[in-house]
Amino acid sequence: MTSSTSETTSPAPVAYASGSGRRMSFAWLGVMPFLLFALLFLILPTMKIVVGSFQTNEGGFTLANIANLFQPSILSAYWISIRISLASALLGCGFGFLVAWAFVLGGLPGWIRSPLLTFSGVASNFAGVPLAFAFLATFGRLGLVTLILRDWFGINIYGLGFNLLSFGGLTLTYLFFQIPLAILIITPALDGMRREWREAAAILGASGFQYWRIVAFPILWPSLLGTFALLFANSFGAVATAYALTGSSLSIVPILLFAQIRGDVLQDPHLGYALAFGMIVVTGIANGIYIWLRARSERWIK
């Protein structure tokens, strides 16, 4: 007489935390590089900036660094940075929405969506020295577009008041990565617009304008405001592009901060920490608004 034994597959070994019955998954090892990166390059530097903002050169506590932020020159730099950020965020959000609407709801051929989103993903991260050089080679005094307009059409844009190394020129440069970033953020919101909403509005006799004014824009408004807030923070914290393009000819907060840390004029690292702390506060508020509005928008779409 033969006896049959049933084979059972033993479960994969699971690591347990010592002294407790809770399971500790090895999946945490997968996120350890990210947590380590965030700790070394985000959390610890931010803590150092915050602590350094309230320290003297000898290490004592002081509020003088924060008080120095209210100097006229520093307030002017903050105001210029805020104006550039507002202008580039507003234009970037507006043009980004129009482009996203064109290929999501505007009836453009479907094949254009993938290349446009791919380009937007690349262009939204194209900044710094390469972007500054590209715009100097295109819109500088001897740039390609400048010479074409001057020699072929008799239009001297610099004679008309344009200057790449100015408020308008820096805003134009920022739009190169602001518009693609807006496209990437707004596209999912437009994808979430249900066709049934427009059909129901049409059945009730609403025109296209009434549909957008009463139905579509109220739903998209939190997403648009969130995109604007994120673009503002993205522009306000940009330093490499501004410094490579304008040098010290345009006094904005990132360039002023770079000068204080590097010691180009009067080195005061703790004033630099205070400047960075002020930037953290401004960008933190903008990002907080973005997260809150993004959550509201996602609730509407669901």
Instruction: Determine the strand fraction and express it as a percent band.
Output: under 5%
* Coarse structural class: mainly alpha
Number of helical segments with 4 or more residues: 12
Separation of the first and last Cα atoms: 64 Å
Taking pLDDT < 50 over at least 5 consecutive residues as the criterion, the unreliable ranges are 1-10, 14-18
Order of helices and strands: HHHHHHHHHHHH
> CATH superfamily name?
MetI-like
Number of domains: 1
Give a description of the structure.
The protein is mainly alpha-helical and 302 residues long. It has a single domain, classed as MetI-like fold, CATH 1.10.3720.10. Helices cover 69% and strands 0% of the residues. It has 12 helices and no strands. It has helices spanning 28-53, 64-67, 72-104, 113-123, 129-139, 144-153, 167-191, 195-203, 208-236, 240-246, 253-262, 269-301. Helix 3 (72-104) crosses helix 7 and helix 7 (167-191) packs across helix 9 (208-236). The chain is globular, with a radius of gyration of 26 Å. Mean pLDDT is 83; it is low at 1-10 and 14-18.
